[in-house]
Write a structure and sequence with these properties.
It is built from four helices and five strands.
């Protein structure tokens, strides 16, 4: 990820736990991420290689993906979000944001607000240092709650459309 720069935009973010109930994911967490992907999308997520062993680990090792999420006491990943960086681009992509459909998390609205306020401030500083000008939030039109979450906590605003982001997606309200 962005290896052509001296340091990746994520280097400064990993220094501290993102919030009280969340942490940065590592290679040992890949099976939990695959289970969450399967529970949410049952194999239909557009980045199919993430369903395979080693898919996310390759991205983490390359510095192309920074993942954070919340785990329960049994080690189940309850929700996940990821930040992607592609070499040569002046932007980061925020995506791979999903939650286990049948479970509640320990995080309340205030913690989500603090998490994203903190992350966006850190990203603002890191991205300026890495000469990255934009953070794109990818949110499926299939999930209205994800759109509300992105606009409320991440301060996202609609700016475009990614076709075929998920299978069975229907375009509504453009």
């Amino acid at each position: 990820m962005c290896r052509e720069r001296a340091a990746t935009p994520f280097d400064g973010l990993r220094a501290a736990q993102p919030s009280e109930h969340t942490r940065w994911l590592a290679e040992a967490d890949e099976p939990a991420l695959r289970e969450l992907l399967h529970a949410r999308y049952a194999g239909s997520y557009s980045y199919r290689f993430l369903h395979e062993p080693g898919g996310a680990s390759r991205l983490w090792r390359a510095g192309a993906l920074l993942s954070l999420g919340e785990f329960d006491d049994q080690g189940t990943l309850l929700w996940h979000t990821g930040l992607w960086c592609k070499p040569g681009r002046d932007s980061l992509d925020s995506g791979l944001s999903l939650a286990l459909p049948i479970r509640r998390t320990a995080m309340d609205r205030a913690e989500h607000e603090r998490l994203w306020s903190h992350l966006l401030e850190l990203l603002r500083r890191e991205l300026l240092n890495a000469r990255v000008g934009f953070l794109h939030q990818q949110t499926s039109t299939l999930h209205l709650m994800a759109q509300r979450y992105a606009s409320r906590f991440m301060r996202a605003v609609p700016v475009g459309l990614i076709v075929d982001y998920t299978e069975g997606e229907t375009l509504v309200g453009v």
